[in-house]
Amino acid sequence: MTVSTAEPGTFTGTALPGDSSSLHRVVQDLARGVRTAHPVRDTLANQELAKVLSSWDSAPAPVHPDALVAPLFPEPSRAAGVPFLPKERLLSREEKSAAADAFTRVLESCEFTSGPAVTAFEDAVADYLGLPCAVATGSGTDALVIALRAVGVGPGDEVIMPANSFAATENAVFACGAVPVLADVTRPDGNLDPESVAERITPRTVAVLPVHLYGKLADMAGLRAVADRHGLGLVEDACQALGVTGVGQYSDAAALSFNPYKNVGLCGKAGAVVTGSAEIAERCRVIGYHGFEPGRKNVKCEAVGLNARIDNTMAAIGLALLPWTSLRGLRRTYLARRYVDALRPLAEEGVLEAPAFAPDHSWHLFPVLPAGGAAARDALLEDLARRSRVESDVYYPVLTHRQQTPVRERLFGQAHLPRTEWLHNRVLHLPLHAGLSLGEQDRVVEALYAATRRAR
Ligand SMILES: Cc1ncc(COP(=O)(O)O)c(C=O)c1O
């Protein structure tokens, strides 16, 4: 590996922001034998990344990038197979200790619900994302409900969204008294298709709600153009896309999740609305806390409000864990590139499709599309588990319009979503989390080669 400070990627002279495209560039540089050597932007979320990148300056030149990054991917002590998402590894030992210290400090102050950590956490999130406003909430679901209401979604309105998301997306629309209208997605990323959205617009449409599926940014420029043409609100479900370049840049508001399974997960449920509009942020604060007028105790200015703001306890833990944000992103990005490289021969043979290694991606999940439809996919999942003890998953097993609920026929009986269905019948998720080791990833890849060979 060459060590270069002269040509370290695209950030020469500017500080590395720590967003997805800058992490993508660091990983691309590593793959071509160039070590990233630039200052990292001084924000809480970049603290641990800055330490790691500066430690590379003095490290001896290794023969392979894996050797340089190996300390970031410790092997688990008990290695019986490869679990999909082992709960005990959601946080590292250092993160657990930082969270415990933060909780101890909150216990001493007894400031459990409101308190100074809330604003500090909001400021740190906004600073990391380069957006003016963040309003922290009790969950990503709360953030979605609040953001939708803040852009004017109310009873009887229609909100256009995809069918291949976590139930929170449609539930947030229902919680506003509005109706989800399902549009089709683009292939292979599974994100909302602006053309399909345009076809679903009616006089009752008030907003469009794209989901950055698995962490890949939807076509926000295309969706903004459609929204502007029809005077609609645009709210992002960015619950899987913290730190993705472009989040919050095109929309009225974006919802984030900090639940423990997300790229940055706290010790309980938490979320945030981020927005470039101070006015929308103000509305979110009012809606999120009982409709109370900001700065006035128990005095309402809105008829209806929620009790959906983040607790000071969780915000304090969030502040303690935020320093690992972009380093966690770097781990995921490195693993994603390693998967893409390792699976390329299978992709070239037409055995499976892997995602492109894209800069606007948080790699919350790593989907592959094995050839052959649902039966072949299910057989592969089963083979990986039984023969290699590698857990894979179909993360959302039932599409919104296929959920057996009382409203299914009335609201979704006519839904025509061929590309959504096509993807849904093929997608398989491979293990990818910030605690996955390189050795575990190699075992997943070996297992996949062996299983697909057996199936041919
Ligand atoms: C796409 C999507 N939307 C919304 C949510 C809801 O977030 P939370 O669990 O924080 O309420 C999640 C996370 O579970 C999600 O993945």
UniProtKB/TrEMBL annotation:
Alphabetical keyword list: Aminotransferase, Pyridoxal phosphate, Transferase
Domain of life: Bacteria
Enzyme Commission number, as recorded: 2.6.1.104
GO molecular function terms attached to this record: transaminase activity
Main enzyme class: transferase
Parts forming coiled coils: none
Pfam families linked to this entry: DegT_DnrJ_EryC1
Recorded family membership: Belongs to the DegT/DnrJ/EryC1 family.
Protein name, entry field: 3-dehydro-glucose-6-phosphate--glutamate transaminase
Taxonomic placement: Bacteria, Bacillati, Actinomycetota, Actinomycetes, Kitasatosporales
